[in-house]
Amino acid sequence: MPELPEIVALEQFLAEHAVGAVVGRVDVSALSVLKTFDPPVTALQGRDVTGVGHWGKHLGMDCDGLWLITHLSRGGWLRWVDEPAAAPPKPGKGPLALRVHFFTPEGATPAFDLTEAGTKKRLAVWVTSDPLSVPGIARLGPDALAVSEPEFAEILRGTSQRVKNALTDQTLIAGIGNAYSDEILHTARLSPFANAGTLDDAQVTGLYSAMRATLADAIERSVGQDAARLKGEKRSGFQVHARTGLPCPVCGDTVREVSYADKSFQYCATCQTGGKILADRRMSRLLK
């Protein structure tokens, strides 16, 4: 799933490639992605692209006051196409959900595709004049890179969630998902199952610093990359996430995993839990 660093990179990519162009035809290949119908997606056609924006994991393109907003969810992605096919795509064929064509000032006719892999179709698209009308945006907490340390501390102390869940709860802090929460907690040397509300001042400061540093580093590596390369760039910086069984680059211990029904997370026992192994069962507790 694209998280804040990839969304910021895609935002910058669209700022460089789409802003200043005119929206041409909009092809909808999967009707289920559209979450709004008034105004219709065809209302974007003929409008100038005047800006871009993001809200947590939501990415938006401003078409002269009318926003096209998407949440890519777990299997979605944005792909830039320099020379798209002239014929509209056939509905329901392949991963393509929606294609937006452009006319650039230079006379080119590129497009971007919103695609979604897998069988669980969760990619969503809204057309609206007010981004805050999108339910997911209206519920968001402060952006992870905009929240101050005192605000961050107040958020954590106002919840009894495990710190892993608190970091990924978009109503508390926007933009962090499964991957970067693993990396942030590893950098902060905290157990994923620590209670967010009982962290001491030093732990909160360390976690805040780790969050800022991890996300800033990922953004620095991602911005400027071609959209097609962002997934690989994201994986290249991981120390524990998606590295089960490999040595921790900090201490050399084996990176371990806790699996759930539809996801998993990774951690280093030496760096984060004092050598204690977290039980790998969905309903089990932290082994103390």
UniProtKB/TrEMBL annotation:
Residue intervals of the FPG-type domain: 239-273
InterPro entries for the chain: FPG_cat, FPG_N, H2TH_FPG, Ribosomal_uS13-like_H2TH, Znf_DNA_glyclase/AP_lyase, Znf_FPG/IleRS
Transmembrane segments: none
Assigned keywords, A-Z: DNA damage, DNA repair, DNA-binding, Glycosidase, Hydrolase, Lyase, Metal-binding, Multifunctional enzyme, Zinc, Zinc-finger
Gene Ontology biological process terms in this record: base-excision repair
Cofactor: Zn(2+)
Domain Formamidopyrimidine-DNA glycosylase catalytic: 2-119
GO molecular function, one term: lyase activity
Catalysed reactions, semicolon-separated: Hydrolysis of DNA containing ring-opened 7-methylguanine residues, releasing 2,6-diamino-4-hydroxy-5-(N-methyl)formamidopyrimidine
Family: Belongs to the FPG family.
Protein name as annotated: Fpg/Nei family DNA glycosylase
Phylogenetic lineage: Bacteria, Bacillati, Actinomycetota, Actinomycetes, Mycobacteriales
